[in-house]
Amino acid sequence: MKNAVLSAAILLSIGAATAAPAPVSDISGGSTDERVARLERILKAKQQSEFQTQQQLETLQQEVLDLRGLTEQQNYQIEQMLQRQRQLYDDIANLSVKPAQVAVASSTSTSGSASSTLSETASYERALNLVLKQKKYDEAIPAFSAFTKNYPNSTYSANANYWLGQLLYNKGEFNSAKEAFNTVVESFKESNKRGDSLVKLGMIAEKTGNAGSAKTYYQRVLKEYANSAAARIAKQQLNAL
To answer: Is Nucleotide-binding tagged as a keyword (predicted)?
Structure first.
C-alpha cells in the first residue's frame, strides 16, 4: 500500500513538472536581467537628455541677462546723450549776444583768428560736434581739453570734463580719464554728471585690477544716487565683481 501511494506521488510530481509553464520573459523576448538592463539604459539616456536641456536653458538665461544688461547700458548712454543735447540747445537758445560781439565775430577774416574769438558756448559746441556729428574722436580730445583749461568755471565744464574722460577711457588712457572724472566728482558736486563719473571711476578701477576701489565707487553711487540710471549700472557692475 505504501509503495502504491509512493508511486502515485512520484507520478503526480512528474506530471506537475511537465505541466509547469516556461520561465517568464519580457514582452521583447529578453530575460528579466536584460529587461532591467534596457530600462537602466533608457533611464540613463533620459537623464542625460534632461541634463543637456537644463544646461541649454541655463545658457539661454545667462544670454538673456547679458543682453538685458547691454540694452540697459545702451539706453542709459542714449539717455545721457539726449540730456546733454537738450541742455546745450537750451543754453544756446537763452544766450544773449550783443550786437558789438556779433560785429567782432563777423569781421574776423581768417580761420585761425576765428577760433581764437569763439565764445564759451560756441567753443563747447564745436568740441561736442566733433563727437556727435563728425565722429572725430581723436580731434575732440584736445578740443575738450582746451575748453576745460580756457573755461574752468564754465557751466559746461562738468560736461566737458566728463566727455574728455569718456573719450580717454575709450582709448584706454585710464590715468588721464581718471583725472577728468575726478574733476567732475570733486569740483562739480551738483552736476548731473557726477554719478556717471563715479561709475566710470569704478570701471577704471576694475580695468586696472583694483576691485576693492571699484566696489567703493559703485557703493557710493548706490548710496548717493539711488534709483538713478547711474545706480542701475553701478549695481550691475557690483554684482559682476
So the answer is: no
Q: Dump pLDDT digits (tens) for 26-78.
A: 445 567 878 778 888 888 888 888 888 877 777 776 666 556 655 655 665 67
Residue linked to cell 574769438: 117
Q: What's phi and psi for 146, nearest 5 deg?
A: -65, -40
Q: Where are the domains of the chain?
A: 77-92+118-188, 193-241
The C-alpha cell at 62 is 545667462
CATH number of 77-92+118-188: 1.20.810.10, 3.40.50.2300, 1.10.530.10, 1.25.40.10?
1.25.40.10
Spatial CA neighbour of 123 closest among 100, 140, 104: 140
At 198, the pLDDT band (50, 70, 90 cuts) reads very high
Burial of 182 (0-12, 13-18, 19+ CB in 10 A): middle
Using only the alpha carbons of the chain, give its radius of gyration: 39
